[in-house]
C-alpha cells in the first residue's frame, strides 16, 4: 500500500526490471478513486536505483497547477485509490489504454487532512420587534 500526503513529494519504491519488456521505458502512474471512480494520471521518471533491481519515483501532490508530465498531480479527495503503473515508450502519453504494459497495481491512501478552515465574519443583523 502506498500512502500519499498533500502538498509534498511522495516517494514510491517498486521493483520494475523483471516486469518491463521495453527498453528505456517511461512510467505512467494512474490513480482511480475507489468511491467516485475519478482518474488522475502523471508521468514520473526514476530518481535512482536501489539494490535488488528496485527503482524509486517521486510524485508531488499539489493544490493546483500540476504538470502531469513532470510527476505532479492534483488529488482533490482524501480517500483510497487504486493505483496502476504502466511502462511505455512515449514520454508524453497520459492515456493508459495507449501504454505498452501494466507492471504494477495496488492501493494508495491519500491522507488529506483539513489544513485550513473557512471562517466567515458575521454581518450585523437588525431584527424587527412587533408589539400588540
Provide a compact summary of the structure.
This protein is an all-beta fold.
Describe how the helices and strands are arranged.
Blueprint: E1 2-4, E2 9-15, E3 26-33, E4 39-44, E5 48-50, E6 54-61, E7 72-73, E8 80-88, E9 101-110
Parallel strand pairs: 1-9, 6-7
Antiparallel strand pairs: 2-6, 3-4, 3-8, 5-6, 8-9
What does this structure look like?
The protein is mainly beta and 132 residues long. It has a single domain (2-110), classed as Immunoglobulin-like. Helices cover 0% and strands 42% of the residues. The chain has strands spanning 2-4, 9-15, 26-33, 39-44, 48-50, 54-61, 72-73, 80-88, 101-110. The strands form two sheets. Strands 1-9-8-3-4 form a five-stranded mixed β-sheet, with no helix packed on it. Strands 2, 5, 6 and 7 form a four-stranded mixed β-sheet that branches. The chain is elongated. The N and C termini lie far apart (69 Å). The mean pLDDT is 86.
Amino acid at each position: 500500500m502506498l500512502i500519499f500526503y498533500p502538498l509534498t513529494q511522495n516517494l514510491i519504491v517498486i521493483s520494475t526490471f523483471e516486469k518491463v519488456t521495453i527498453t528505456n521505458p517511461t512510467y505512467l502512474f494512474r490513480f482511480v478513486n475507489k468511491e467516485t471512480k475519478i482518474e488522475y494520471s502523471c508521468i514520473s521518471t526514476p530518481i535512482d536505483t536501489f539494490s535488488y533491481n528496485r527503482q524509486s519515483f517521486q510524485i508531488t501532490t499539489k493544490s493546483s497547477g500540476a504538470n502531469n508530465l513532470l510527476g505532479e498531480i492534483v488529488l482533490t479527495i482524501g480517500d483510497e485509490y487504486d493505483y496502476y503503473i504502466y511502462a511505455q515508450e512515449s514520454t508524453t502519453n497520459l492515456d493508459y489504454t495507449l501504454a505498452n504494459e501494466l507492471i504494477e497495481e495496488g492501493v494508495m491512501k491519500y491522507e488529506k487532512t483539513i489544513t485550513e478552515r473557512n471562517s466567515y465574519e458575521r454581518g450585523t443583523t437588525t431584527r424587527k420587534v412587533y408589539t400588540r
